[in-house]
Predict the structure.
Amino acid sequence: MADGTKVFCPKCGDFTFCKSISISDTPFSNSRPRRKYLTGVMAFKRYRSCHTCGHEFVTAEIPFEEVEKVSSLLSKLKELTATLEPPKV
């Protein structure tokens, strides 16, 4: 079995094993802390390296209830923007 957790790589698009890497070994080494409070959501940053293409990237771990809230808000935003008239030129 491969090392790491299966996630989607944003570069190659594979759903593959991406190992967690130390922040000091990444270009993100100055982006501390690992825990971040984002407008009502506590998120944990995870630094990953794709086993397929080697791309290094950051993922976030948040409670699923927060994902559902964000999804609901995005749906409402989409409905609102659909009712807006395009700007007159």
Remarks:
- The chain is about 20% helix and 35% strand.
